[in-house]
Amino acid sequence: MPEELVILEFAQGVAVLTLNDPDRRNILSVPMVHAIGAAMDAAEADESIRCVVVTGAGRAFCAGAELGLLRAAADGSFDEVELVYRGFLRVRESPLPTIAAVNGPAVGAGFNLALACDVRLAGEHARFDSRFAALRLHPGGGHAWLLAQAVGQQRATLACLFGEVWDARKALDVGLVAAVVDDDVAVTDDHTGVTEAAVALGQQIVPLEREYTERLVATLRATAATATHADALAAETAAQRWSVGRPDFLEGLTAMEARLAARGR
């Protein structure tokens, strides 16, 4: 097993969290889950970081939970399966925006890890496979809910119950991913093209104040649970009222006024 199950790198305001157990297709073992938590803690502790990119080393994004944990669950010990949930829930609960750079198969709990991110980009070799029904295992970790939120109940049913597997292009068609990135684009020795694309996307928000970013991310995530437009209006009005008093807003407003004045000359 690699010495570092998760590699954390910093790229000009973006943290890149790479699952690093390629020989086992980056499965979510108990040590891997702990390593993800420690890496997320470190990324969030750095005030310069505005976004976290999650990807996998080697050919897979994440092949799901370690089968030994599922065997133990069948024998009556379910605690470690619930611990696996912490791996992707830790990403979902981050106050920072997260981008999944899905470089290969995302299976079962690994699919959940991709769903836990705010934005998903797919490399050409990405594949999304719920796999639960094939194992006669009920989805866990909120998989059905997360998937239905992303693609709608009908598509979620096809994936969860009927075992429909989506490649990168199909995932784009159903709205699961925001874009498909050619694997030969911007490839480096350390990262695939989709990871480089995710980093570039994350760097677009580096100029934003971190507190502003976190508040907007919280608002966007809350929309799924907001029942009415009136509730959304109230929440956004409060947040907008907060933002107009921030120094960054005043600087941006002044700069916009100056640009408009220059055009009118």
- Return residue spans where pLDDT drops below 50 for at least 5 consecutive residues: none
- CATH-wise, what's the superfamily of the largest domain? 2-enoyl-CoA Hydratase, Chain A, domain 1
- CATH class wording of the largest domain: Alpha Beta
User: What's the β-strand tally?
Assistant: 9
What's the helix and strand layout?
Layout: E1 6-11, E2 14-19, H1 30-45, E3 51-56, H2 67-74, H3 79-92, E4 98-102, E5 105-107, H4 109-115, E6 119-123, E7 127-129, H5 143-151, H6 153-160, E8 166-167, H7 168-173, E9 179-181, H8 193-203, H9 210-222, H10 229-243, H11 247-263
Parallel strand pairs: 2-3, 3-4, 4-6, 5-7, 6-9
Antiparallel strand pairs: 1-2, 7-8
Helix pairs in contact: 1-3, 3-4, 4-5, 5-6, 9-10
